[in-house]
Hints:
- This protein is an all-alpha fold and 67 residues long.
- The protein has one domain (2-66).
- It has helices at residues 2-12, 14-17, 21-28, 43-66.
- The chain is flat, with a radius of gyration of 13 Å.
- The model has no long low-confidence stretch (mean pLDDT 92).
Amino acid sequence: MLGGEIVRRRHDDPDLAMRPVQDVLCDLIEEDGGPLVWPRIAESEQNAFDATCRKLYRFLSQQNIRN
Length: 67
């Protein structure tokens, strides 16, 4: 879902399309979760998606500390 959301946003926003994917990813996920997915999904699905985004955020944060 996160990949699809990145593709959708980059397609809709020409300025975003010119930015590196890593930057867009870092802008979309945060400590509290991920972006709201469009078209809307069930709340339970959004909660599961947010949990995955939080884990990815923590992983990427740890990688940045080590590099």
